[in-house]
């Protein structure tokens, strides 16, 4: 069974545990322990760690081997600056390249987001927000840009917690306005609206305290269905 689980699935599982804090910054990532944790062999774990190192989630230390990276406050701040540059670009590209299928999904997400903003839970809204931004990134029609934006959102989620905000409904109005511009093919308006939305969202981001407890060797089976998504 172990040989049938791909390195991609293992990479997704380890990344999710890093982002959630289950594998804390500074923790050693020992192949044998990780293989037992996820119920796989060491081969996909080794490949996954190489991928995560290239993404910046893992680093290698002399005499310690692979460890979860320990980002600095400056590195975390840089991520928000990079987002402010790339997401408006993605919105502009989406206005020029989106498909009817992208628009259908985005409209459904905005409709559901506005409804949940009135009656839903913060966890539901964070997930819907993530889906909206990921779909918009896919609509940009550039695999390279989509990959950059996806990785950027994962790292921001890792380094920052989001404070509750009373302007959840306004955030979904922002999403709706961006969607309208994308649907009309107005790239410059989509770019400007996304830039304004990001600027208004900055106060909700709170830098996490990046502590580093020991890594547990508790077994955690890989969720292969989620890893494929």
TrEMBL record:
<feature type="domain" description="HTH gntR-type">
    <location>
        <begin position="4"/>
        <end position="71"/>
    </location>
</feature>
<protein>
    <submittedName>
        <fullName>GntR family transcriptional regulator</fullName>
    </submittedName>
</protein>
<dbReference type="InterPro" id="IPR008920">
    <property type="entry name" value="TF_FadR/GntR_C"/>
</dbReference>
<keyword id="KW-0805">Transcription regulation</keyword>
<dbReference type="InterPro" id="IPR011711">
    <property type="entry name" value="GntR_C"/>
</dbReference>
<keyword id="KW-0238">DNA-binding</keyword>
<dbReference type="InterPro" id="IPR036388">
    <property type="entry name" value="WH-like_DNA-bd_sf"/>
</dbReference>
<dbReference type="InterPro" id="IPR036390">
    <property type="entry name" value="WH_DNA-bd_sf"/>
</dbReference>
<dbReference type="Pfam" id="PF00392">
    <property type="entry name" value="GntR"/>
</dbReference>
<dbReference type="Pfam" id="PF07729">
    <property type="entry name" value="FCD"/>
</dbReference>
<dbReference type="InterPro" id="IPR000524">
    <property type="entry name" value="Tscrpt_reg_HTH_GntR"/>
</dbReference>
<keyword id="KW-0804">Transcription</keyword>
